[in-house]
Design a protein that fits this description.
Elements (H helix, E strand, L loop, with lengths): L25 E5 L5 E6 H11 L2 E6 L6 E5 L1 H14 L8 E6 L5 H16 L3 E7 L9 H13 L4 E10 L2 E8 L1 H11 L7
Parallel strand pairs: 1-4, 5-6
Antiparallel strand pairs: 1-2, 3-4, 6-8, 7-8
């Protein structure tokens, strides 16, 4: 492999001791629904697993006594994988970008606003990038006014996360969705009862 080739990223999967690999002499046993069975000797737990044709999976090794689950190991792995998949990503959704100039036309501005609303209601953050062309850089106040306009138009669904900053010939500001957007979405999913 040459130094220019990309190396594969390996995701580290957690290791769980099972059945005869469990070293503790006493364990706190849970069933597949996380209901506590009780504190048993490892021999009793193994006997129970054998009778029910299930596995013992050590889920909390450092507890005293260690916590062990009575479940088919294949089912346990499937549930763990699903849990990881359903876990929300840190920082919410993706960061989307909207580009425009400080002297944008009204119809183009409305198009950008619609696009921003779509991104924000989907749970994404939006970075507004205002490009100053030529002598436009002498009028930075128009960029600030645009950001204020967005803030006013989007106040119900978004908050201004990072205030506008002028870097070289571009002004940047970031909007993130408010929590109420998510709750509104959940309300829409709940079917309303029809009146008889």
């Amino acid at each position: 492999m040459t130094r220019y080739q990309k190396r594969k990223r390996y995701t580290r999967t957690p290791y769980y001791r099972t059945n005869w690999a469990i070293r503790a002499q006493e364990v706190r046993l849970l069933d597949a629904d996380n209901k506590q069975i009780g504190v048993l000797s490892i021999a009793e737990a193994r006997q129970m697993a054998k009778e029910q044709e299930l596995d013992l999976v050590e889920i909390v090794e450092k507890a005293n006594p260690p916590v062990v689950k009575l479940i088919k190991f294949t089912k346990f792995k499937y549930l763990e994988k699903k849990k990881q998949k359903d876990k929300p990503k840190k920082g919410g959704g993706e960061l989307k970008e909207i580009r425009l100039t400080p002297f944008i036309g009204q119809s183009d501005l409305e198009t950008r606003l619609k696009r921003m609303k779509k991104f924000l209601t989907a749970g994404h953050k939006v970075k507004v990038s205002i490009k100053f062309i030529g002598r436009q850089i002498t009028k930075p106040e128009f960029g600030y006014k645009l950001v204020e306009r967005f803030q006013t138009e989007l106040e119900e669904i978004a908050i201004l996360e990072t205030k506008p900053k002028l870097i070289h010939k571009r002004m940047y500001a970031t909007f993130s969705p408010t929590k109420t957007v998510k709750s509104k979405k959940q309300d829409e999913k709940v079917p309303q009862k029809t009146q008889s």
